[in-house]
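The following block was generated as part of the benchmark described in Methods. Ligand: guanosine-5'-triphosphate.
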Amino acid sequence: MAHEPGDDGFVTVYNRKTASREPPLDDDTGLQLQIFKIIVIGDSNVGKTCLTYRFCGGKFLKNPEATIGVDFRERSVVIDGETVKLQIWDTAGQERFRKSMVEHYYRNVHAVIFVYDVTKLSTLESMPEWIEECARQCVPPAVPRILVGNKCDLQARREVPTSLAQRMADSYNFPLFETSAKDPGEKEHVDAIFLTLAYRLKNHKPLRLKQPSEGSTVHLADEQERSPNHCTC
Ligand SMILES: Nc1nc2c(ncn2[C@@H]2O[C@H](COP(=O)(O)OP(=O)(O)OP(=O)(O)O)[C@@H](O)[C@H]2O)c(=O)[nH]1
């Protein structure tokens, strides 16, 4: 969703209209902050903007518009006593709003979050295409990828059973999370998803995340990551 800085108290740090900035320094150490670029990918309307807004702004965005190109948001988090900056690229799901931007999305990316909507089976079915696009853009297999099912607050309208999504996640060896950008009770879970990635990136560790059953705790375990995505470039 295209969102201007200051709207609704939410910080979109910069977007396609604004200039890039110098890398910031850590206030405490004076050293350059570690910045990790994380892109959020998936069909239009699955809730990519709302998820990134929830993480970076702490609230549910009530009336999002379709993202055009990309919106950037960022949040600093402390991992093992060190501050790292997560730069979240909220990408457009609609083809017409993304086609000229695709290469920029994937360039120098540190992690990829694939999002589907648990109330719309087609958004999970199209996941292999998004994963394939990521591979085509030469994102190295070692770059962590996770699968996120959003809109879990709409249980009565659920079309995607956890078991089905888990099978897909397993076939790519991605961790699976299910959550809701809307449900305030899921705020900490949304944070945990991004923080888990941050931990993984900060520590340069392969990390496998397991969510064995719906609504259960996410477990972290160090395991060797395997990805079927091989760069053919
Ligand atoms: N019930 C519910 N609705 C949600 C949730 N997340 C997003 N929505 C709604 O889903 C619609 C699409 O949300 P967006 O965040 O704009 O979706 P997007 O994936 O960024 O869409 P594009 O910008 O077109 O790619 C909006 O009407 C949101 O209010 C959620 O967790 N639960």
